[in-house]
Amino acid sequence: MHRLRTTVARLRPLTAAQAAKSPAQPRTARAGLRTVQPRRQQNTSASAEPFLNGTSSNYVEEMYYAWLENPRNVHQSWDVFFRNANAGALPGAAYQSPPPLSRGSQGPAGVQALGGIQPNVDKLVEDHLAVQSLIRAYQVRGHHIAKLDPLDISCVDFDDTPCTFGYQNVEVCKDRLRSLAVEGFYGLTECDLDKVFRLPTTTFIGGNESSLPLREIIRRLETAYCQHIGVEFMFINDMDQCQWIRQRFETPGVVQIRLEEKRTLLARMIRSTRFEEFLQRKWSSEKRFGLEGCESLIPALKTIIDQSSESGVDSVILGMPHRGRLNVLANVIRKELEQIFCQFDSKLEAADEGSGDVKYHLGMYHKRMNRVSDRLVTMSLMANPSHLEAVDPVVQGKTKAEQFYRGDAEGRRVMSILLHGDAAFAGQGVVYETFHLSDLPSYTTHGTVHVVVNNQIGFTTDPRMARSSPYPTDVARVVNAPIFHVNADDPEAVMYVCKVAAQWRNAFHKDVVVDLVCYRRNGHNEMDEPMFTQPLMYKKIRQQKGVLHTFAEKLIDEGVVSTQEYEEEVATYDRICEEAYARSKDEKILHSRHWLDSPWPGFFNLEGQPKSMSCPSTGISEEELGHIGHIAASVPVEDFTIHAGLSRILKGRANMVSQRLCDWALGEYMAFGSLLKGGVHVRLSGQDVERGTFSHRHHILHDQNVDKRICVPMNHISPDQAPYTVCNSSLSEYGVLGFELGFAMSSPNALVLWEAQFGDFHNTAQCIIDQFISSGQAKWVRHNGIVLLLPHGMEGMGPEHSSARPERFLQMCNDDPDVFPPLTEDFAVRQLYDCNWMVVNCSTPANYFHVLRRQILLPFRKPLVAFTPKSLLRHPEAKSSFDDMLAGTHFQRLIPDQGPAADAPGSVKRIIFCTGKIYYELTRERKNRSMEGDVAVVRLEQLSPFPFDLVRAEAERYPAADLVWCQEEHKNQGYYEYVKPRIRTTTNRTRPVWYAGRGPAAAPATGNKHTHLTELQRLLDSALDLEVKPGTGSRGPGPGAAHLHTVQ
Ligand SMILES: Cc1ncc(C[n+]2csc(CCOP(=O)(O)OP(=O)(O)O)c2C)c(N)n1
Ligand SMILES: [Mg+2]
C-alpha cells in the first residue's frame, strides 16, 4: 500500500506534456522524481481509485514510467488516467472507464479525455496486473524453487519453521512452493498461456522484445530464477541495483560461458579435486578439512579474482575457515606445494621463534601474474585461529589500511574476499558486526565478496538445529547485499554468479554473497564418522558422483574437450603434485616466516630481526610542544562557531600551555601530534572517541550553526604531516577491535589505537585479545603494535564501569615470574622484545605521552595494553610539566618516590608499591597523616614486562622497609597475583611482601557509593598503618574488607 501511495504521489510533478517533450530515460526520470515533493500525497486516497491496490502498484508504476517515456507506450485508458492525474484530478476522478470516454469528456473540468473504447479493458488490465505480479513473484521468490541442492534433500520452508532439513519433508515442501504456478494465485489459466503480454520495464526477459506470450514469459522466468541459481535481491532498496541484477540474470542467454572459459574451468576443477585426492593418498590419517563436495570453490574464487583483476584490483585479502584452506593455498594463492606438503611432516624442526600453528590456520602472502587478466595480483590469506569468523573484521581492517595507504578511496585496487561455513556464518555474531562496518565511512572496504561453503552441516549439526532463518546467508540482508545461491555441482553456474558478484562489487562497491550450496563428502574432518548423526544424508552422499566426473563428462559430450585431453590434464597435475612431494622430502626445517600474511618490507633486517635493540628518547622539543599545544587549544579554520563550553576547555588548554603543563588530554595530543608531524599515521577508533567518553578529548569540533561541519585541528599541525583519523565506531567491540588489529597489521608506521568505552567492555572482544593480540606473534611470527586504551579505576560507579580487568591481561603475559632476567645493557628494550605484549598503567600525562611514542620509536612492534584513567583526566595533580616531555626524556617504567622518604631512605619503614590512580589517594592520605618520611610510595607504570631491575633497586634503596603491594581492586583481581611472585623474585625471596587492598570478591566493584568509599578508606588505613605486622592477617571478613598480610 505504501508503495502504491508513493506511486500515486509521484504522478503529480511531471506533466505528460513535459514528459513527452523530453522522452527521458526511465532512470533519469526516476532520479528526478525522487527529489520532488509528493504534492498529491495528502489529497489522493488510493482507495478512491478502484483498481489501485497493493498488488497492482508495481504494474501501475511500470505503466507510469512507460507513459513518461512516451504516452503512446501505454494503453489509451492509462494515458487518460495519467494525464488526468497530472492535471490535478481529484481522488477517484483520474480514472475514467472506457465507455464514458467515448461519449466525451467526463473527467474533471478542463481535462481533455482521450482514447477510444476497449471492450475488455477491465480483463486486460487485470491480466496485465496478474502477469506483472507473476514476474515479480519469480523475482522475489524464484530462489525458493530453484534447484540449489546437489543432494536434493534440503528444504527451506519459508512459511513456518524457517529451516527444515531431511528426506521426509522434500515432497511436502515442493507442493507448498507451487504458488508460482499459473493456476494458483494469479488468476491466470491455461487459456491465457498463448496470449501476448506487454513486459514491464522491470524485467529483461524479453531481450529485444517488449511483449511475449505468457507461456514464454514463464519459461524464461523459470530459466532465469529456478534452475541452478537462486537470486535473492528484491529486498534491496535501490531500484538501479535491482535493475542491474535483473539484467544480469534475466537477459536471454546471459549465463552462457565461452568455450575457452569452460576449458579453464575444467582445468581448475581438476586441480581442486586432484589436490584433495593426492593429500588423501599420501596422508590418509591426517586432518586436512578437505574440500570434497565443494570442489567448485576453487574456480569460484579464481573467477572472482580474475574478474576483479580485470577491473583494476591488484591486491586481494582473503579470510577463510578450515574447510578447503590447503586447497585455496595451493590453487588460488599458489603457495609452493612442497611448502604445504612439508607441513604434514611433524618431525621438521622450526627455524624461527614462536610456537607455530596447525597447517590449516596459517596465513600466506604471494604476488603473481593473473593469467586471465595479464596483470600482477598480490594475494594474502590471513592467518586465523580456530574461532570461526573471528578473522572477518581483521581482514576488513587490513584491507581498509591498504586502501588508505594507497589512496584507494573507492576500493578500486584493494579488495577483500571472506569465506564462511554455513553454520558459522549464521551462528557467529561477529559476522553481523562486520557487516555493519561495511558502509561506515571510516571502516568501509567498499564491498566484500562473501563466499559461503554451504555444505548443509556444521560438524554434526543439521541446519534445522543451527539457525532460525531459512538460509545461512540471511544475515547479509541487513546491509542490502544481494545473495546468489548456486548449486555447487554446476561449475558453470558457479562461475557465472562469481563473475556477477565481482562485477557487482566493481559497480556498486557494496558487499555481495555467493552461497555455494554443496555437501561434505567426508565427516567434519577426514577421521570423523558422519553416519553416526546424518545417516540418510550420507547414504545419499555416497551415491553422489563427484562433480569433476560429471562436469568432465558434460564437456566431453559437448565436444569442448576430448577424453584424452581431459586425462592428460589430470595426469599433468598429478605429476606436479608427485614432484613437489619428492622435493618436500628434502626440506629439513620449517620456516614460519614463509607463512607471513603481512610482510613489512624494510622494517626488519634481512634475517627478519629488528635493526637495533635500543629505543631513542621519546621526548620532543619545547617548540614542538608549544606548537602542538597551540593547535590543541585553537580552532584552526575561519568562521567556525564552537560551543561555549568547548571554548572554555580550549582556553584552559591555552592556559596550561602557557604554564608549560599538560593534562591527560593534552599529553595525548602531544603524542599524536608529534607522531603525525613525523609522518606517522595515527588512527584512533572506538565508541565515542572523537569527543571522548569523558568529554576530555574533543578531537573533532562541530560548528554550532552548520550541520555536519566539522574541524579536526590535529590535521592542521603541519603541511607535510601524516593524516589523522579519529572515528566513532559502531557499538561493537569484537568487530571493531578486530578491525583495528587488521589495520595495524598492514604497516608498522602507524599508531593504531582502539579505546573501549569503559575498560570492562573489552570482554566482548575477548576472542580478538586471546586469539590474536596476546598470542598472534607466537603463532604466526607476525608483529603488531596495536594499542588498547582501557579506562579503568574504582570510582564508585558500580561493578560494570570500574575494572578493565587487569588480572586477565597480566595472566596472559609470558614473562617468567620466578626468573630474574639477565641484566644486560639493553635490558629494558630486550624485555619488550621478548614479551608477547606490554601492559602499562600510567599515572602521569607525560608518561602516557612517552609510552605512545615509544610504540613507534621501538625497532619492533608489540601490542600495548594501557589502562587509562577517568577521574585523573581532571585531577589537579595529574599534570605533567613540559620538562618531563623534552628531548632526552623517556618513558618511566617505574616512578620512584621523590619526597622526604627518598631523601632519607634509611629511616623509611614501608615501601608501598602501587600502580595507577591509587597513587594519588595514597599520597594524599600519607600527607594527611604526615608520614612522608616514613612511607615511600613507588609507582609501577609498566606492569609487564615487569621492571625487575627497577623494583630491585627500590627495595635495596630502603633496606629497613616493609614491602607492601597496594591496590584498589579486589584481591583476586587487579595486579596482585601478577606482581606478588615477581616482587619476591627481585629480593631473592628474602623479604616478605604484604598485601593492602580489598578482599576477594566475585564482582569487580560494589554498586553502592558509600560502601565504595568505606572500602577505600579501609584499604588506605591498612596500607598506612605501620602497626600492623606480619601474621595478623585480614582485618575483617567479606569482600569489602581491607587485607594486610604476608605473601609467602
Ligand atoms: C567460534 C567457534 N565455535 C566452535 C568451533 C568448533 N567448530 C569447528 S568447525 C565447526 C563446524 C563449522 O561448521 P560450518 O561453519 O558449517 O563449516 P564446515 O565445517 O561445515 O565447513 C565447529 C562447531 C569453532 N571452531 N569456532
Ligand atoms: Mg557447514
What is the oligomeric state here? single chain
- Mind telling me which CATH architecture of the largest domain this is? 3-Layer(aba) Sandwich
Q: What is the highest CATH level, the class of the largest domain?
A: Alpha Beta
Assign a percent range to the helix content: 25-40%
Q: How many domains would you count in the coordinates?
A: 5
In what range is the share of β-strand residues? 5-15%
From the spread of the alpha carbons, the general shape counts as globular
Major sheet: 8 strands, mixed
In short:
The chain has 1048 residues and is of the alpha/beta class.
Structure notes:
With 1048 residues, the chain is α/β, with parallel strands linked by helices. The chain has 5 domains: 62-87, no CATH class; 122-168 and 182-250, Orthogonal Bundle (Helix Hairpins), CATH 1.10.287.1150; 259-594, Thiamin diphosphate (ThDP)-binding fold, Pyr/PP domains (Rossmann fold, 3-Layer(aba) Sandwich), CATH 3.40.50.970; 622-792 and 841-884, Rossmann fold (3-Layer(aba) Sandwich); 897-1024, 3-Layer(aba) Sandwich (Rossmann fold). It is built from 36 helices and 31 strands. The strands form 8 sheets. It has an 8-stranded mixed β-sheet with strand order 5-12-13-11-10-6-9-8, with helices on both faces. A 7-stranded mixed β-sheet has the order 19-16-20-21-23-22-28, with helices on both faces. A 6-stranded mixed β-sheet has the order 25-27-26-29-30-31, sandwiched between helices. α35 (976-986) links the parallel β29 (962-970) and β30 (993-998). The protein is globular, with a radius of gyration of 35 Å. It starts with a helix and ends with a strand. The structure holds thiamine diphosphate and magnesium ion.
